[in-house]
Amino acid sequence: MAYIACDKHGGQLASLISHKLYQMIEGTEGNSAVGIKTIKYESLGGEQFSMFVDSDTFEELSVAHNIDLAKTITDEEKLFEITLDFVAICPVCLNDWLANRSNVVGDID
Questions:
Q1: Domain segments of the chain: what residues?
Q2: Based on CB atoms within 10 Å of each CB, which residue in 12, 13, 30, 53 is the most buried?
Q3: What pTM value is reported for the model?
């Protein structure tokens, strides 16, 4: 887990997302349509976490790490490997962006 100090929403436990989504939220990626996938993790203690990635990153990670990301990850080491290149973001900012996007393709899985 990471803590982030958001200028708008104060201190928050950070959400982890792919670089492409981060760039879209920051406005540096443009407004192209994007599919969003959810990578789910369940800790040994039963806590559940979700990370959002664009569909391209989802597929690339699935192949690179030889894992079915449609299933919940329970291996902490595998989660660490997968999320090394993710970006921390304020979860409130992320939820606001997701709620206001017209260019998200399909449902968020």
A1: 3-90
A2: 53
A3: 0.80
